[in-house]
Input
Amino acid sequence: MGRDLAEAFSQARMVFEEVDDALSQNLSRLMFEGPAEDLMLTENAQPALMAHSLAVLGVLRAEAGVVPHEAASFVAGHSLGEYSALAAAGCLQPADAARLLKLRGQAMQRAVPVGEGAMAALLGLDLDTARDVAAEAAAAPDGQTQVCSAANENAPGQVVVSGHLEAVERALTIAADKGARRSVMLPVSAPFHCALMAPAADAMAQALAEVVIAPALLPIVANVTAEPVQDPETLRKLLVEQVTGLVRWREGVLFMKSQGVEELVEIGAGKVLSGLARRIDRELAARSVGTPAEIEEFVKSL
Output
């Protein structure tokens, strides 16, 4: 992960080194060489994904003078990607973003013992129906109430639910009865974006209180409100709410379109968000920029 960037661009190497120094950890070696199972631990995966995004952004700035607040109307990031968006908007220094994400990953993993929580994607249901499914699934047969709630609305017909393992498993059956096309358990280490993450939200509130957040140089479309934010204290509050709150990605993308956005550029590893954008609205042009070849192609298109 990211090794091709580091080999091709000194600016990418600088970003990876800055993150390594901030964490007092050779995260870049883990990214470049593995083992994959260690990289996939959430305390490593979260800062690694951020480092990759900021490395690409650093290369674009160095190679083509691409500066987010000059080139874009908005920035947004999905879940942990919101920290990359804040860094891109000048709110967070990369070192601070890396340390916050390391802590966020550790706090999320500590919040729920491994094996007690789960997440599942419900395909073919709208958000209201998925919420009904989750509410029904939260009622255990023994009369106890467990946690099961909508965690991400990623695109039309793609809602992720999160909570106790048994409740999420019940949600799969209930979703099928309510017309879901398919439901899939997700390979995650914790049930993110639900009430079980409250201890992690408390930890992030304390950590964020000690970090400087500058005013955003361009609006950040927040996960939990799907609205633009630039005020530092509001951003600080929303980052805490995001730990347990619904990621309103579909709404955020449609908000940007309503403001005249015609093209979305996904900066970092993979093509998930550009794929979601096309599912949300086929009129939006969406492209991913994360490899040296994609960077070269993107720069040529400017």
Remarks:
- Residues 139 and 145 are 5 Å apart (CA to CA).
- The first strand starts at residue 117 and ends at 123.
- The radius of gyration is 19 Å.
